[in-house]
Design goal:
alpha/beta, Aspartate Aminotransferase, domain 2, Aspartate Aminotransferase, domain 1, 2 domains, 7-stranded mixed β-sheet, 3-stranded antiparallel β-sheet, pyridoxal phosphate binding
Amino acid sequence: MLPYGRQSIDDSDVAAVVEALGSDWLTTGPRVAEFEALLADVAGAPCVTVTNGTTALHAAYAATGVTSGDEVVTTPMTFVATASGAAMLGAKVVFADVEQDSANIDPAAVEAAVTSRTKVIAAVDYAGVPADYDRLRKIADSAGSYLLGDAAHSIGSSYRGRPVGTLADLTTFSFFPTKNFTTAEGGAIASTRPELVTRLREFRTVGLVRDRAKMRYPDEGAWHQEVHEFGLNYRLPDVLCALGSSQLRRLGAFKARRQQLVARYDALLDDVPGLRLPVHGEGVDAMRHLYPVRILDGRRREVFERMRADGILVQVNYVPVYWHPVFEDLGYRRGLCPNAEAFYAEQLSLPLFADLTDSDQDRVVEALRGILRS
């Protein structure tokens, strides 16, 4: 079986994890700080690690103070966590439609959706191509809102010469095994705003304050710590941070290989009938997480099932978020974002990962060509 995504683990990764297992620190130790520093070099901003991409989003929304009565404007073309992290804090999620070609959130739709209650505008870098952050920044600043970038797909990418961690007030990452690099399970939040970094660190550590200058009762013993605001235990352990640091040292090679594979798909599939290839974005140097094609003429399900029957585990990314029953039960209805729904009806993710061989990619292309020409 050929998956649509898969981790790349080598001997250096294994050695890093084994070394961490033999150390005095399995969690809350020096490898956390080391990984966060390496990650900041890639993201372009200070980073706070957490347990996964979903908790990264929850922590980011919490750091902005999202609560009941607030609104969060976001895209429906994403994994549900982009929206559910805000909804769980009591916010009303407002879905803005996507651009027809990129499937990234449409700034014009965002501008139309913003109100005086908009606390956060949350973009998603679909498939690894950064959203139009310059236009989104202007909208967010005009509205007095925070700008959040869900970069679960795009670490290693840049937008107009700037790394993705510098484009929004908060940028979240996922290090799930299918992503651009992995910590097995893991995530992080980058921020260019020091006060948000502080809030993030406290939130992911159960809200604990250890800085005596900030304590309400600083004259207690050296053991003393305080909780001023509720937080959760979202700490990423040293063992997984060791894997992450090792993986980050290979990120350049991962990016180069993914870009080679994308270029090969572009060339090999260019003349296939009934198929639309992804756009790559102006001013973008993308490290693609997905290679999302569009299957035309109502044949997406047929192609999905036939490819899987051939042992090629293509995927669909994503069901529009408000189609999920949990949002349907809140009153959201189909038809809300026509571009997103049209994209979903045709979208198919082909296998893309650093260890994908040319011969395996050729197999994918041959199978897809054969189906679409039959």
